[in-house]
Design brief:
This protein is of the alpha+beta class and 429 residues long. The protein has 15 helices and 16 strands. It has an eight-stranded mixed β-sheet with strand order 1-5-6-11-10-9-7-8, sandwiched between helices. A five-stranded mixed β-sheet has the order 13-12-14-15-16, sandwiched between helices. A three-stranded antiparallel β-sheet has the order 2-4-3. A hairpin with a 5-residue loop joins strand 3 and strand 4. Helix 1 crosses helix 11 and helix 5 runs parallel beside helix 9. The radius of gyration is 28 Å and the shape is elongated. Bound molecules: histidyl-adenosine monophosphate (HAM). The site of histidyl-adenosine monophosphate has 26 residues, from strand 6, strand 10, strand 11 and helix 11. Histidyl-adenosine monophosphate binds next to strand 6, strand 10, strand 11 and helix 11.
């Protein structure tokens, strides 16, 4: 019987070698500035109570209204694959009382997120984010720190063709004043029912409407940035002065609306110029009401999510990916059954000392095994047969030029370390 092949679900991004190496590098470079600033890892569930997102992210958003992967578990509970990370972090902070300790609570996370979007280049149904959240301190300096951590991540990778856009969505006083005028403005527009409904839940949402007639109509809409209270305006000024101090270029985009409803105050997006329609490589902002909405105390928070898939695409477009592939230090070729068991234990010991070691498996003849060693890109090769075992001596061959060195098996690790150091020195690394 012949079985049919099974394919990955539509819109799902997966990373296989050798691309996975680049993916891993990008992810680590994006995380590293957060680690250096004292943020600590949170590993959270991939599915949560559906209410967490409908309440936290907001019913007016595309994410909640159209894009959630929601299912019932066997006990009839409604669960949803996480479409974003902030709500889950906040849920865990409240549930585990982290907000009763030292503030701010500083968290980083990375992993898969799920949105049932129409797949296209740079837009997937399962995608990867690296994110941070700083919870419990309302200080423009932490806004600047959060932005600078994202910025440093992109710089680590070597990206240049991106722009930081920022705005302020103000405090509740600013938004209430703006809301009155914005709703008045909407009365003069002919809106279909669905649009009017969205506007009722969150009037700002219509700034995000991509339909040409709406983009046109919204040109004359009152902008929130012109309604900032004195306090919100002075906060936003401070954030900008810190960014200048940090030499981080930005533009103020007062029409920017983020796709999630929890945002307040400073919000930002990093937009890359080489990615076509899916140009947002990361974004975030303050969410000062979120904790309370999720049943916690009224503490503020700010964070970001960076799209690892898109940053990888951007790194490819800008040709900044390091070209190095994984090459192990040593490749061992055992000849015969006794040699195989010695090779296994030698490889084990070498790895324990930090020397990367691969070995040949199967019953391949020496010639085939040498080819495999060559293909693997290993720097040195050792062949072990019966005579090497009985004499306790092996020859280390440098693949680059064929130079050979005899060494006692017991001294193999030390000798390899010396040779590898010499190699690195010779390459001027
Ligand atoms: P977001 O803007 O929805 O924010 O997502 C952050 C980033 O994830 C985007 O800039 C984009 O790079 C990437 N991304 C989003 N959707 C997709 C997709 N379908 N395919 C590929 N990449 C995608 C958030 O999720 C907020 N939780 C960020 C945040 C944290 N705000 C405050 N704290």
């Amino acid at each position: 019987m012949k079985f049919e092949k099974i394919q990955a679900p539509k819109g799902v991004r997966e990373y296989l070698p050798p691309e996975s190496r680049a993916f891993e590098w990008v992810r680590e470079e994006l995380i590293s500035p957060a680690r250096l600033a004292g943020y600590e890892l949170m590993e959270l569930p991939v599915f949560e109570d559906t209410n967490l997102f409908s309440r936290g992210v907001g019913e007016s958003t595309d994410v909640v209204s159209k894009e959630m992967y929601t299912f019932e578990d066997r006990a009839g509970r409604s669960l949803t694959l996480r479409p974003e990370g902030t709500a889950g972090v906040m849920r865990a902070v409240i549930e585990q009382n982290l907000d009763r300790g030292q503030l701010p609570v500083k968290i980083w996370y990375s992993g898969q997120f799920f949105r049932a979007e129409r797949p296209q280049a740079g837009r997937y149904r399962q995608f990867y984010q690296v994110g941070i959240e700083a919870i419990g301190v309302d200080d423009p300096a932490i806004d600047a720190e959060v932005i600078s951590i994202a910025y440093q991540g992109f710089r680590n990778i070597g990206l240049k063709n991106f722009t930081l856009q920022i705005t302020s969505l103000g405090d509740s006083v600013s938004r209430a004043a703006h809301r009155v005028d914005l709703l008045k403005f909407y009365q003069g527009l002919e809106l279909d029912d669905a649009t009017r409904q969205r506007a009722e839940i969150n009037p700002l949402r219509l700034f995000d409407d991509k339909r040409p007639e709406m983009v046109d109509a919204m040109q004359k809409a009152p902008l929130l940035i012109d309604y900032l209270s004195d306090e919100a305006a002075s906060n936003f000024e401070k954030v900008q002065s810190y960014l200048k101090e940090l030499n981080i270029d930005y533009i103020v985009n007062p029409r920017m609306v983020r796709g999630l409803d929890y945002y307040t105050g400073t919000t930002f997006e990093f937009v890359h110029s080489d990615l076509g329609a899916q140009s947002g490589i990361g974004g975030g902002g303050r969410y000062d009401g979120l904790m309370e909405v999720l049943g916690g105390q009224p503490l503020s928070g700010i964070g970001f999510g960076l799209g690892v898939d898109r940053v990888l695409l951007a790194a490819i477009a800008e040709k900044v990916l390091p070209s190095q592939s994984f090459n192990s230090d040593l490749f061992i070729i055992p000849l015969g059954e006794d040699a195989k068991s010695s090779a296994l234990s030698i490889a084990n010991q070498l790895r324990a000392q930090g020397i990367s070691t691969e070995m040949a498996f199967g019953e391949r003849a020496l010639k085939g095994a040498m080819k495999a060693a060559d293909k693997s890109g290993a720097r040195f090769v050792v062949v072990i047969g019966d005579s090497e075992i009985s004499e306790g001596v092996v020859e280390i061959k440098r693949m680059e030029d064929g130079a050979v060195n005899s060494v006692k098996i017991t001294e193999l690790a030390a000798e390899l370390k010396t040779l590898l150091r010499r190699d690195i020195y010779a390459q001027g690394k």
